[in-house]
Recover the amino acids of this structure.
């Protein structure tokens, strides 16, 4: 029960960070907070947080951002599945190596979202689509430390 509350609380905070307004000039520098939190929990506790939670959180991000319903859900499920496959290997990597892997996963997210947006006619080609992946990869070590300390503080296993 306590672990479910902590999961829910971290997901709500991530969604609140996703909903923060950004200036138009800095919108490319917004990290993927919800995906970052999902990836942490999938790596830390893959038997409790998995593809279903990723799908639901992706749906919430779709509703927050007002895009195509299911767009983020699709990418979150793909990325959560990839993380669940490699979670034992990821745990052995150093934090910066995990950050590189997170960068690659979030790049996949950004690329699929760009393709879907471009297909609908809402996006123009630019390399700036990878900037959120870079920022999220850089934030991974600190996010990992914060979420791990929360997990250990409340003895979630």
């Amino acid at each position: 029960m306590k672990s479910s509350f902590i999961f829910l609380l971290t997901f709500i905070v991530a969604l609140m960070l996703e909903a923060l307004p950004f200036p138009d000039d800095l919108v490319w520098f917004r990290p993927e907070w919800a995906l970052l939190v999902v990836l942490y929990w999938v790596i830390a506790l893959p038997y409790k947080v998995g593809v279903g939670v990723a799908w639901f959180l992706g749906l919430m991000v779709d509703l927050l951002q007002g895009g195509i319903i299911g767009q983020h859900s699709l990418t979150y499920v793909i990325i959560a599945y990839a993380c669940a496959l490699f979670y034992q290997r990821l745990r052995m990597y150093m934090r910066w190596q995990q950050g590189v892997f997170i960068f690659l996963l979030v790049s996949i997210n950004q690329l699929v979202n760009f393709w879907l947006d471009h297909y609908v006619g809402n996006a123009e080609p630019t390399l700036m689509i990878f900037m959120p992946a870079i920022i999220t990869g850089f934030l991974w070590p600190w996010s990992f430390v914060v979420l791990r300390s929360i997990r250990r503080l409340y003895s979630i296993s």
Observations:
- The chain has one domain: 2-18+30-153.
- The mean pLDDT is 93.
- The longest helix spans residues 95-120.
